[in-house]
Amino acid sequence: MRNVGNPLSEYRLQRLIPRRQRKSPLPLIGRVMKQTRGRADAQVVRKILKDLLAGE
To answer: pTM of the entire structure?
Structure first.
């Protein structure tokens, strides 16, 4: 069974975010929430974004 709670993979989140904008997370959260049309929980998106930004 697929992970229903978070339909976005980290790869897809990275594809949504232009490389040069991955530095500051706050405006990205709004954009990601908009593009996922509310399917992903805000806290999940924040956590994944934080992990992505920490990974670079």
So the answer is: 0.30
